[in-house]
């Protein structure tokens, strides 16, 4: 009976993403690709996967686009309510608890894998939050279908107290590794920097695997030649 119910639900469409979070000397960074897929179909080549929570707190989302968008918007609203009620900003730990509790409540049926980054008391915190609600604080992390390739590069090249330039280069190359080794990640790299003077969002920092010779005109011969001729006589 249960097997029949599963078959009636239809085939689940695979979604994919590569997202990366890195702490460096003066703050933290979040990196994403921009491809949105439904199964084997590319739905959007320039999808935004960085979600605003507060002026010093952002999320990178992987999984089902609707779930990541709605969960982060819900958290943003809770943080706004907290700000209006207590006249101060909610901490990154408040956002982590809201997200992890909500995902755990739905036992993984909300398809949102999130990397949360934010500033609290002059320090920076980076968390990866999985769809079942588990949460881990990290110096660097990666989630999504391309995370295996990205994490292999991060583990080899990451070092503590990197400069901003080193962290940007590491994050872009990690996302590029995910793009080149995962069909469900692609197009370009977006990243966001959170540091003392606020957040800075950089769109299309690098375009990966761009199509070449797309606009070259196709030239055809101006004349038509008969290469072979066969005459068949039909009897009346």
TrEMBL record:
Pfam family name, one: Proteasome
Database matches in InterPro entries: Ntn_hydrolases_N (IPR029055), Proteasome_sua/b (IPR001353), Proteasome_suB-type (IPR023333)
UniProt cross-references to SUPFAM superfamilies, sorted A to Z: N-terminal nucleophile aminohydrolases (Ntn hydrolases)
Presence of keyword Protease: yes
GO MF annotation, one: threonine-type endopeptidase activity
GO cellular component, one term: proteasome storage granule
Biological processes annotated in GO: proteasomal ubiquitin-independent protein catabolic process; proteasome-mediated ubiquitin-dependent protein catabolic process
Keywords: Hydrolase, Nucleus, Protease, Threonine protease
Keyword Protease: yes
Domain of life, per lineage: Eukaryota
Entry protein name: Proteasome endopeptidase complex
């Amino acid at each position: 009976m249960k097997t029949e119910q599963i078959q009636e639900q239809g085939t689940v469409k695979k979604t994919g993403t590569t997202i990366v979070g890195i702490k460096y000397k003066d703050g933290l960074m979040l990196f994403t690709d921009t491809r949105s897929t439904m199964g084997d179909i590319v739905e959007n080549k320039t999808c935004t996967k960085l979600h605003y929570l507060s002026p010093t707190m952002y999320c990178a989302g992987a999984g089902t686009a609707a779930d990541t968008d709605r969960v982060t918007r819900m958290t943003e609203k809770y943080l706004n309510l907290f700000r209006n009620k207590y006249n101060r900003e909610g901490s990154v730990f408040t956002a982590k608890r809201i997200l992890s509790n909500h995902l755990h409540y739905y036992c993984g049926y909300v398809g949102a894998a999130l990397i949360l980054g934010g500033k609290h008391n002059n320090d920076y915190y980076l968390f990866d939050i999985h769809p079942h609600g588990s949460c881990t604080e990290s110096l660097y992390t990666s989630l999504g279908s391309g995370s295996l390739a990205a994490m292999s590069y991060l583990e080899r090249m990451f070092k503590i107290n990197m400069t901003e330039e080193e962290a940007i280069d590491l994050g872009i190359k990690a996302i590029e590794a995910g793009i080149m080794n995962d069909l469900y990640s692609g197009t370009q790299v977006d990243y966001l920097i959170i540091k003392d003077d606020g957040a800075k969002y950089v769109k299309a920092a690098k375009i990966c695997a761009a199509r070449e010779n797309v606009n070259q005109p196709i030239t055809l011969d101006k004349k038509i030649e008969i290469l072979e001729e066969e005459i068949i006589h039909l009897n009346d």
